[in-house]
Design brief:
By secondary structure, the protein is mainly alpha-helical. The chain has one domain. 42% of the residues are buried.
Amino acid sequence: MRLVKLSVGLVLLLLLPFLLWGRGVEEAFTIDGTMAWLRGFGGWAVLAAALLLASDILLPIPATLVMTALGMLYGPVAGGLIGAAGSFLGGIVAFLACAKWGRLAARRLVRDDELARGEALFERWGAWIIVLSRWLPIIPEAVSCMAGIVSMPRRLFIGALACGVAPPAFTFALVGHLGVDRPALTFLLSALLPAAFWLIVHRRIRRATSMNSI
């Protein structure tokens, strides 16, 4: 129960910036506002976009709008790559920071046996939790933090995170590039494609592991 409370606490903590500054940030980072903001950085716009998406761990950044704007500015391939890189960077930073400092804090709040159960849960199901949570608001950041706190295997986390961030980034970049307004289809693709990607990668990992063990 303490581990569950810790998870809920993380979600509430990450929700706080949305409650404080969400409306202002949302008004500033419309698609047109995001494009104007990025153009203001000139040659540094690509780095600014990636850092903007990475800061989603701390700020209420409307990531899907930013990814759509990237598609309009840079096209579906380059825009998708920038969006995926920014989201990936944010997830990695959250994971590493919580692995280093969050676990120390968690040990004061959660018993060792509860942390051990969390470790077992994330070792078995953590990749799917990461992949399937990427289309939700706030939850992906909390999941990345929890993965770090319970010391999820780094390779597993990186693989799942990559499969989770790439499809939405390229999907929204394509939508922006084509100027298509199909929210239902975009939502469906951004939810299902990460799971499909991870299913393929997971099978290949298992196959490679079984061949190495022979």
